[in-house]
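User:
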Amino acid sequence: MRRVRSIAAVRRVVEEWKRRGDHVGFVPTMGAIHAGHLSLVRRARAGALRRQRARVVASIFVNPLQFGPTEDYRRYPRRPARDRALLRTAGVDLLWEPTVAMLYPPDHRTRVRVTGLEDALEGRSRPGHFAGVATVVLKLLEAVAPHTLWLGQKDAQQAVIVTRMVLDLDVPVRVRRGATVREPDGLALSSRNAYLDPEQRRQAVALSKGLAAARTRLRAGERSAARLRTVIRRVWRDYPAVREDYVAIVDATRLEPVARVRGRVLVAVAARVGRTRLIDNFEWESR
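Assistant: Predicted structure:
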């Protein structure tokens, strides 16, 4: 695995691969690498067409723009040696580790906003978060110029917003999603799980259990969004450390609330367990 810092260096490497006809997949991360990230690396490596050589670029960049003033930018886990070893073992060809000054020099003023999508769900609790996400993803894509961008389903709203941005700005990349990777008890893998103490970790499983109960009701034919939200909240009553931020059922593309489940919807939850804020979701499509 080759490691680079500068934008110019990552461009040189990728341009050479493209001249050879290689397929370039890109997995952006903020470090604190876990099995969810590694599953995206594997998908990126498997994404080349027949007769193409697959090349995988990963980035590690803790993006300050997407942290609010009361959030955990300085506390965010940073373990670069461990992260590099995991990405190398998973088969990353090029690891890009830009600095804040490289991506945001002192006179940097531009922000990317995807109106109508950035204020729903996470955006209500984290104003400005998705402007930071969209800005950094566009900058990363401009530098790497991959054929395919791989994102995780756990951050479903982020994937919806990035997909809309790519379409609206004619960015020549295909956005793909990898399924949420979970612990054996169902907890979605997240870098922030490291903040949970043992009791909080036991309580945190409420998010996935509530979603599982809603999925069971959907399979049984329930289509009322209000009743599905009640199902999730009823499960959460058994987990007193879980404090709801939102329980939402929205159109999976527009992120607008729905009263009844028709077509493809996103069932999404967010809650605090102690000081740690966790999210989870699943998509459902009515046939």
